[in-house]
Amino acid sequence: MLNSVILSLLASIGLLTFILVIGTFFKEFGDWQYPILYYDHPSIVQELNYTGTKSAFGLGFHFMFLGDYLIKTTTLFAFILTFTIVLAIFLSMFIKNVFTNYAITILIVVLGYIGSINILKDFAYLSLFTYFQIFRITNGELSIVLDHPSINFLTGSIVLITSISILTILGYWIKHKSVGSFKNTSELETEKEMEKVRHITDEK
Fold it and tell me: Superkingdom, according to UniProt (predicted)?
């Protein structure tokens, strides 16, 4: 599973590099402090120390730097990619067919996302699948749509890291338990074979 983490990080770095190269080529990036709009949840807007701009219906917004936006977007992408790969590896312990494994992985992600957004809407901020909408997380839009201020980059990072850790630990535990069980079975079979050999030798 360590290889999956390395692969995810390399993919994220590659994506960020690609974005920067394309942006530079078309001269879309003035600098890393280019302003990006971020939507603030009404509960945050109502705070006395709110420094953003208030708009209609109790909503508000502020601007974040482009560099900050790209770093957060790439970081979430890395976490999501890592979780997806770890999930596929975990399922491969039970499902040996590669196509079936990928199909079930995709199905889990899709159903998890639908369930988080529609069925468990009040607890969507605790579901890792909610944070698969990377761009709507990093600009604050999804916290407005689902009406929950906790849906943000920090919460998403914590939820994803926790999910990856739990799945990795569970996978290693199952793997070592299976190996231990296999060794015990092999040792038992070996003892039986040796017992048969001794029995045949004694008869002779």
Answer: Bacteria
